[in-house]
Amino acid sequence: MKCTMKILIVSDTHRIDDNLKRVIEKETPVNMLIHLGDAEGSEMFLPEWVNPDCEMQMVRGNNDFFSNLDREREIEIGSYHVLLTHGHYYNVSLGPEQLAMDAKDRGFDIAMFGHTHKPYFDDRDGIIILNPGSLSYPRQKGREPSYMIMELDEEGKAHFTQYYLEG
User: Fold this and answer.
1) pLDDT digit string (tens) for 74-133?
2) Is the distance from CB of 151 to CB of 165 less than 8 angstroms?
3) CATH number of the domain where residue 128 is located
4) What pTM was computed for the model?
5) Which domain holds residue 62?
6) Count of structural domains, the chain
C-alpha cells in the first residue's frame, strides 16, 4: 500500500510529553496531527515538535480548563467526514453508544474520541469509532501507552493501525 496521507492520532497526554515527543520523532513526517483533548497546555508547543507542514487538529478535553480549543471539530480527511471530540459530553466512559448514534445522525464517517485512556476501534453501522488510548496514563490491561496512525492509500481508503510504546 502506498500511503498518500499519514495522520498521527493521540489523546490524553496530560502535559506528560516525553512519550508524545518520542512518538512524533518516530512517526515524522506526518501530514496531520490530531490531539483528542487533555493536552493541558502542551497544545501550544505541539506545532514546534512536528514537521513544519503538519496540519494540527485539536479539541479541548475535560482537564483543559484554560484552553481556547473547540469542544469538538468537524473536519474532512480525504473523502471522510470526521468528528473529533474528547468524548466526555457523550458519556464515553460508559461506552461509545451515544457517540456512535450521534455521529450516525449527523452524517459522519469517522468519530474519534479520547477520555477513557483505553484504545478502541470499531465499525458500527458503517461508521468508524476510534480512541487511540493515552500516551501518559493508559488504563487498558497491560497499561501500555498507545496511539494510532491513520493512512490514506492511493484510492483514498483509510487504514488504521494501533501502536503501543515499549519502555
Assistant:
1) 999 999 999 999 999 999 999 999 999 999 999 999 999 999 999 999 999 899 999 999
2) no
3) 3.60.21.10
4) 0.97
5) 3-164
6) 1
